[in-house]
Amino acid sequence: MTRRTAYPRVYFELVFIGFASILGMGLIGAFLPILAKDLDPTGNLVGLVVSAWFLARVFIEIPSGFISDRIGRRRLFVLGIALSAVGSFLCAVAPSIYFLIAGRAIWGFGVALFFLNNTAILFDLFDPAVRGRAIGTFQGIEMVGSLIGGPIGGVLAGVIGYNTVFYFTSALTGLSLVLVFTLHDLKGLGGRAPVALERISLRAALSSLTQWPIIVVCLICLTRMLIMNGLMSTVFQLYLYENLGFGVTLIGIIVGARTAGTIVATLASGHLSDRFGRKRIILLGLVLEAPCLYAYTLVSPFETVLLIGFVDALGAGLTWTTLTVLLSDIVQPEYRGVALGFYRTFMDVGGILGPIIFMAIATALSPYIAFIVGALLLLSMAGLAMTI
Q1: pLDDT value at position 37?
Q2: What is the pLDDT of residue 120?
Q3: Which CATH class is domain 9-199?
Q4: Are the CB atoms for 164 and 92 separated by under 8 Å?
Q5: Residue 194, pLDDT score
Q6: Which pTM was predicted?
Q7: Common-topology check for domains 9-199 and 207-385
Q8: 90: Cβ–Cβ under 8 A, 6 or more apart, which residues?
Q9: 383 pLDDT band (50/70/90 cuts)?
Q10: DSSP secondary-structure letter at 194?
Q11: Is 192's pLDDT higher than 80?
Q12: d(CA 34, CA 29)
């Protein structure tokens, strides 16, 4: 595959498919736990509906990355979209909590295949000099889909019902699948790997993952996911509600400001990392976010929390995208798929363990301690990044 220094048409086709996928996922974010509780009034399996998404992915990331390196990106890319469509359709017709869990698991499995290979295609497609800009723009547009998906899904759920919203998601994913087979540039993208890559052994691929820079990048990714899912997506909202006395409306505004900050930083991070270097932008993001986590424990006015939330999200956005681009720079091209799988496994583990760990800290000690632990973790990752 010829690497580019400018955006080819296929890039925009990939952007559209990624945007449609994220938008479809975002549509159900506002009501998924509520639907799960309706199907299981005991509440015992509601958590599994959410965690099934990550549990289905954690065991497939590395194998799918290796397979992608061996046979090419396209097959798993297409399979991921197809499984996402099937999973969302199963959620739409789910008559019980068990069908909903199965649908979420298949959907998560498909999303793992899709996004791993989609990112690997971008790695292959662009020259390192502009790769940060290309991936940052791509992920920023995806986040816009997530931002608008929640409110749209909430409105649709109120008008047409929870289950019917899943049909919209399935239709969006189905449209993406049709485009893969009809758009000329996508039909030839990410095809079979060169013969030399087909001969790569699993042992050699796994050995490539022991490089210290790759391990550091994955540990920072794990820490970011622990904080993102455990602290800022679980403890944070409870802290605002129970400790600061903010209502749901004000909490929604703060969450929206954080999302806006993440989008701004994600769009900018690629340009900045191409110009100033990946490690500098990662360090900037970590040292910007860490003090903000501690600052949450010191202030209570809504306007101040809102400002801290926006700055906090800027740091998170700068780190998140630049980590992915740095991984593409330090790994050998023939091992990009398996390296991405390794990286995303750490991400999935963080998504699973984050809520458990930080809720345990907040419950056993206090939410204040949870924020301090998060800040210290980020500072320790900054120190680790210096060793690359």
Answers
A1: 77
A2: 82
A3: mainly alpha
A4: yes
A5: 47
A6: 0.78
A7: yes
A8: 99, 100, 102, 103, 106, 107
A9: very high
A10: P
A11: no
A12: 10
